[in-house]
């Protein structure tokens, strides 16, 4: 397992490296740069002011020098400064990441506590009416566009209760109730989709387990359903459920962009969008790096968990 | 009605004189109100409170020297101050007390107000004024405002409260240039520290009624009252908090549920969606902004002036206004609505401003496009009015055989096109100041003095613009700009469509609200909030 | 939604065909009872396809004609789903948007399925260096959140429907790559392939084709599973203003425009959203039934 993890880690780092180059090149390929944005409609290109600003941001340097400069900083843990605001990128990105992480983890919790029980029930009562109802929920949940759901929730809550979420995100450690009030609608709009996905997956696992020999044997031996379920089925599908949890978390972290924009949350997704709009390269690079790294870490964690729970797992399956 | 011309014609003047003279030409009350910096004084004394303002625009930064975006200008007008305030009737002294102009128009002597403190606690003197304007006009410092100061040759400190600007050619617009748009008076040496630019986003160094207390990316900006502010009694509010919201729906819902007290609507017609909500006051304000269709003289069929004229004759501005703003605005021709009476040319004297599709068809045929032609129309993502306007325009131009392909780009791409003089046919959206030189020069003068991103390259018009800038006699100035507008009309580098009304929505706890026609938040310096 | 609507029901009424069509109908009914969700999926898909292919059958009103005197009207007999701010008929726009939206989603997915599938099979079959190189490249694409990747690619390429298709196809190449690769790996370790290799059969091309044929169903299944997701991303990009250019009707674009009127005219947003849901639903239903069968 040790050598596998080393290999895995190496591959992840290589990916991160390649991604950072891709990030670096791709953000620069979008037409227009921060200098144009700052000068706006004030004059033509090639002006003295433009050259001055380009020098200030180091945009006059060759690309590979710019990249190496940046990479050198990253290796030292310094992501540079925002070109627009001048704040340290590390600080900006971490602040935004905590918002997204909280949203992500709470959505994951919501999806797990709603999705897994629903999936278990549906799997146990396969083919019955309750199964059909849960499946209907799953399919509908998977089909509704997240932002559309969010918009409809916002309007519905506003017109029914004359209430809308507070507009400033406060850390849960500062003001918990305010924090939860801000996040409740975004969690619901993101969570329904993920709960549906989780529930569907869980159901499949349970149904699959029932067709396995050990379950059939256990049931044939006359073991009560309750025991078979908790002793055999649940224990065996646990690994899959945990793995899926990681997948969902990655999906949530990648999918928050629109929801954060809709609900004015200062998270990583919105930061990325606004930084791309402002052509604030250091922030875009830092934020994307954060996204890439968190996905890598979650993947690694899931892998390790996988190995811990079930050492038989083949490395390349 | 030529208040700003009158102003520059008077050799020595203070606020009182400006009011007295101008009162002759405008209704007294309107002018007296307008000429007061930051709007009319309140009738009652209400103090305190934190005003929650919803905003669809987040300022990229709060640096008045290096950030040319309108989003930045809107809020920093409460934090930083120039020598003058941009009243509709012309520049009104703000940090300056009064000024004198030499006979030849080349020397401006400004007498500064005494007892003004910066947010840093220092006293403001002439040395700070010289430093600030020297900094902005040096192109090496990369300020978008530098282009407005090309006529300034040098700035001299006479004594602590007197500063002289020497020009190399007369510039009748100098006082309004010294307003609150780009730059401001900051303590001498502010930018000596390389980290100073970034620091401006955390702490302000201006003289304005509010100072910056918190600025959180994608979240909010909090301004708090400056306790040593020089204008007696101002501001009334303890604090102003701008909450940045990414879409209209969220803004409207927040207004309705009292999460915010005040907002300028992104689309004036959205006020219909708030009608009947008891606690909200909806007000319409005149605007200096204008929304044109710009035509690049180097772009495909637009190279032929007849095609541009044909488009001008086919556009139905009223219909586009209806479609894109629900009619909340005023159709214009060659100048924004708020300046039409003062500087405009009557529409009867303009040749291509009245719809005439038959004549347009003839022009298209003459240009060799009788069988029709295709063009791209660029709109900007996030400018909500442009999409419906584009679709409506597309229908209209199809009448004369023009097929428009609508291309929506993000603002960064659009600005890039702009700076590369590669605009094609596009909608544009610009605010301005109530001065014809500020309105026209930068946009329409040939390069390199002006931006001329429409590749108009019109010698005759540029000569008029230079003449207008150096002329201080109001009658003559008006003639020059009228002539200029007729060239605009004939050669169609732009088709000005309409000025949108500014619509504000405020909770009824908000008192003494005033909205400046630029769309900037000047008025909040005198706004009050009932607890 | 009734199950009896079988297209064969309209055949010419000769006795022979009557008998045949009745038999077909009977079989369809039996099928519907045995696999209700599959049947529902098929019926919905058929309905959606007919809307996409022949929008004129469902709406004679132009989706782009503007009439500013009839703006923002609530649903009524003359405008079933109401009108937008330009007085355009939302029902007609939703109907005509079906073809636009679905062809973008289906088309871009076909491109990603083709390239992802091909690269995946090659990587899985040849293994080693190729696999490693492709794998890293795919990982890089995968490390970007889909919407962000879409935003950046649309920004780089500029706004047009073609570029939107390109952006979406790049985003989903990895998903197909992975499926195809693991399929190819397990196929090429099968005994007959091993056997063929061991006897020195040089028909690499034949083998390759053989593997491809066996991987195909996996790719098709993945296509169906991903379809609702891609539809979501397409709509989300439209919602961010990066999708189809006006005045072309597209569900995401209608939603984007409708969000500004959400308090006043919610119908603009409601109906295209439901269309998206129904399309996603129908493909999911079929995909899941197929998946069940393949297992």
Helix segment count of chain A? 12
- Counting helices, strands and paired strands, the structural category of chain A is mainly alpha
CATH topology grouping of the largest domain in chain B: Dipeptide-binding Protein, domain 3
Q: How many strand segments of chain A?
A: 0
Shape designation of chain A: globular
Mind telling me which CATH architecture of the largest domain in chain B this is? Roll
Question: Given this structure, which CATH class of the largest domain in chain B is correct?
Answer: Alpha Beta
The proportion of strand residues of chain B reads 15-25%
CATH superfamily label of the largest domain in chain B: Dipeptide-binding Protein, Domain 3
Mean pLDDT of chain B: 88
In short:
The complex is a heterotrimer of chains A (317), B (531) and C (295). By secondary structure, chain A is mostly helical.
List keywords for this structure.
heterotrimer, B: 531 residues, alpha+beta, D-Maltodextrin-Binding Protein, domain 2, Dipeptide-binding Protein, domain 3, 3 domains, 17 helices, 22 strands, globular, disordered N terminus, C: 295 residues, mainly alpha, MetI-like fold, 73% helix
Structure write-up:
The complex is a heterotrimer of chains A (317), B (531) and C (295). Chain A is mostly helical. Helices cover 77% and strands 0% of the residues of chain A. Chain A has twelve helices and no strands. In chain A, helix 5 (89-124) runs parallel beside helix 12 (281-309), helix 6 (129-143) crosses helix 8 (176-210) and helix 9 packs across helix 10 (225-262). The longest helix of chain A has 38 residues, at 225-262. By secondary structure, chain B is α+β, with helices and mostly antiparallel strands. In chain B, the strands form five sheets. Chain B has a seven-stranded mixed beta sheet with strand order 9-10-11-2-12-20-13, with helices on one face. Chain B has a six-stranded mixed beta sheet with strand order 15-19-14-18-16-17. Mean pLDDT of chain B is 88; it is low at 1-32. Chain C is mostly helical and 295 residues long. Chain C has helices spanning 15-34, 36-53, 55-58, 90-126, 128-142, 146-157, 161-188, 191-198, 204-239, 251-258, 267-294. The two termini of chain C are 28 Å apart. The chains are: A mainly alpha (317), B alpha+beta (531), C mainly alpha (295). Chains A and B meet through helix 2, helix 3, helix 5, helix 7 and helix 11 of A and helix 7, helix 8 and helix 14 of B.
């Amino acid at each position: 397992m040790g050598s596998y993890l080393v290999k895995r880690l190496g591959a992840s780092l290589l990916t991160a490296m390649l991604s950072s180059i891709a990030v670096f090149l791709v953000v620069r390929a979008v037409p227009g740069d921060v200098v144009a944005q700052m000068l706006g409609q004030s004059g033509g290109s090639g002006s003295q002011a433009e050259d001055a600003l380009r020098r200030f941001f180091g945009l006059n340097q060759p690309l590979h020098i710019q990249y190496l400069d940046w990479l050198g900083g990253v290796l030292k843990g310094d992501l540079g400064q925002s070109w627009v605001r001048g704040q340290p990128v590390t600080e900006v990105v971490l602040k935004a990441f905590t918002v997204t992480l909280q949203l992500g983890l709470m959505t994951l919790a919501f999806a797990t506590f709603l999705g897994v029980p629903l999936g278990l029930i549906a799997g146990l009562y396969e083919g019955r009416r309750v199964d059909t109802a849960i499946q209907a929920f799953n399919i509908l949940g998977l089909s509704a566009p997240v932002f559309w759901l969010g918009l409809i929730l916002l309007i519905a809550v506003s017109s029914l209760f004359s209430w809308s979420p507070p507009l400033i995100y406060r850390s849960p450690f500062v003001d918990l109730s305010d924090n939860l009030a801000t996040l409740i609608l975004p969690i619901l709009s993101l969570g329904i989709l993920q709960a549906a996905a989780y529930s569907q997956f869980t159901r499949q696992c349970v149904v699959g387990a029932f067709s396995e020999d050990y379950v059939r044997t256990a049931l044939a031996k006359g073991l009560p359903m309750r025991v078979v379920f908790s002793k055999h089925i649940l224990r065996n599908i646990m690994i899959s459920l945990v793995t899926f949890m990681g997948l969902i978390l990655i999906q949530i972290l990648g999918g928050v962009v629109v929801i954060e924009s809709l609900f004015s949350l200062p998270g990583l997704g919105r930061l990325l969008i606004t930084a791309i709009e402002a052509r604030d390269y250091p922030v875009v690079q830092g934020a994307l790096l954060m996204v890439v790294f968190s996905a890598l870490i979650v993947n690694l964690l899931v892998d390790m968990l996988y190995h811990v729970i079930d050492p038989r797992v083949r490395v390349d399956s | 009605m030529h208040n700003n011309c009158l102003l520059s014609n008077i050799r020595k003047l203070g606020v009182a004189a400006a009011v007295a003279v101008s009162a002759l030409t405008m209704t007294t009350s309107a002018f007296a109100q307008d000429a007061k910096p930051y709007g009319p004084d309140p009738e009652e004394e209400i103090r305190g409170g934190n005003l929650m303002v919803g905003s669809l625009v987040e300022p990229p930064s709060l640096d008045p020297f290096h950030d040319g975006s309108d989003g930045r200008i809107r809020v920093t007008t409460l934090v930083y101050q120039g020598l003058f305030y941009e009243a509709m009737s012309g520049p009104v002294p703000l940090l300056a007390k009064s000024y004198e102009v030499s006979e030849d128009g080349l020397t401006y002597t400004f007498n500064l107000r005494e007892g003004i403190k910066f947010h840093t606690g220092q006293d403001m003197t002439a040395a700070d004024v010289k430093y600030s304007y020297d900094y902005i006009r040096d192109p090496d410092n990369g300020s978008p405002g530098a282009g407005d100061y090309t006529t300034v040759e040098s700035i001299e400190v006479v004594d602590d409260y007197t500063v002289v600007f020497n020009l190399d050619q007369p510039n009748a617009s100098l006082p309004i240039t010294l307003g609150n748009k780009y730059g401001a008076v900051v303590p001498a040496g502010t930018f000596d520290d390389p980290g100073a630019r970034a620091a401006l986003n955390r702490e302000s160094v201006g003289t304005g009624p509010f100072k910056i207390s918190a600025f959180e990316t994608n979240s909010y900006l909090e301004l708090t009252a400056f306790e040593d502010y020089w204008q007696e009694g101002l501001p009334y509010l303890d604090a102003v908090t701008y909450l940045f919201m990414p879409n209209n729906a969220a803004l409207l819902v927040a207004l309705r549920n009292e999460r915010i007290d005040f907002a300028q609507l992104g689309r004036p017609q959205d006020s219909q969606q708030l009608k009947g909500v008891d606690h909200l006051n909806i007000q319409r304000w005149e605007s200096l902004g204008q929304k044109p269709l710009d035509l690049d003289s180097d772009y495909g069929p637009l190279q032929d002036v007849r095609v541009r004229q044909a488009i001008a004759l086919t556009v139905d501005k009223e219909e586009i206004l209806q479609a894109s703003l629900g009619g909340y605005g005023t159709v214009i021709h060659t100048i924004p609505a708020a300046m039409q009476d003062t500087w405009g040319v009557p529409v009867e004297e303009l040749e291509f401003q009245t719809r005439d599709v038959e004549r347009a068809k003839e022009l298209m045929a003459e240009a060799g496009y009788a069988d029709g032609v295709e063009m791209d129309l660029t709109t900007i993502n996030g400018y909500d009015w442009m999409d419906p306007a584009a679709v409506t325009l597309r229908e209209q131009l199809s009448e004369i055989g023009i097929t428009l392909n609508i291309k929506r780009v993000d603002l960064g791409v659009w600005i890039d096109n702009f700076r590369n003089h590669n605009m094609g046919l596009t909608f544009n959206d610009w605010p301005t100041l109530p001065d014809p030189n500020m309105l026209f020069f930068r946009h329409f003068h040939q390069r390199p003095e002006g931006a001329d991103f429409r590749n108009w390259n019109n010698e005759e018009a540029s000569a008029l613009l230079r003449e207008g800038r150096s002329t201080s006699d109001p009658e003559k100035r008006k003639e020059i700009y009228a002539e200029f507008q007729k060239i605009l009309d004939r050669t169609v580098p732009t088709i000005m469509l309409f000025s949108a009304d500014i619509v504000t929505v405020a909770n009824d706890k908000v008192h003494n609200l005033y909205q400046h026609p630029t769309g900037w938040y000047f008025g909040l310096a005198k706004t009050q909030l009932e607890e | 939604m009734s199950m009896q609507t079988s297209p064969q029901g309209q055949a010419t009424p000769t006795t022979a065909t009557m008998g045949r069509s009745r038999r077909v109908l009977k079989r369809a009914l039996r099928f519907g009872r045995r696999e209700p969700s599959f049947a529902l999926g098929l019926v919905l898909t058929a309905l959606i396809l007919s809307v996409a292919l022949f929008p004129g059958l469902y709406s004679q009103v132009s989706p782009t004609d503007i009439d500013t005197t009839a703006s923002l009207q609530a649903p009524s007999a003359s405008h079933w789903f109401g009108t937008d701010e330009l007085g355009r008929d939302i029902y007609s726009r939703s109907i005509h948007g079906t073809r636009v939206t679905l062809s973008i989603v289906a088309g871009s997915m076909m491109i990603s399925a083709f390239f992802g599938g091909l690269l995946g099979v090659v990587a899985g079959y040849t293994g080693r260096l190729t696999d490693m190189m492709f794998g890293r490249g795919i990982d890089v694409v995968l490390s970007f959140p889909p919407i962000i990747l879409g935003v950046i690619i649309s920004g780089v390429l500029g706004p047009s429907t073609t570029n939107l298709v390109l952006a979406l196809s790049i985003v989903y190449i990895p998903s197909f790559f992975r499926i195809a690769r693991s399929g190819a790996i397990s196929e090429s370790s099968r005994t007959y392939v091993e056997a063929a290799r061991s006897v020195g059969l040089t028909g690499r091309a034949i083998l390759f084709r053989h593997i491809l044929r066996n991987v195909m169903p996996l790719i098709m299944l993945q296509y169906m599973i991903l379809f609702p997701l891609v539809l979501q991303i397409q709509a989300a990009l439209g919602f961010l203003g990066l999708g189809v250019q006006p005045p072309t009707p597209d569900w995401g674009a209608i939603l984007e425009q409708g969000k500004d009127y959400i308090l006043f005219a919610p119908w603009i947003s409601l109906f295209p959203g439901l269309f998206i849901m129904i399309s996603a639903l129908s493909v999911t239903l079929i995909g899941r039934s197929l998946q069940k069968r393949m297992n």
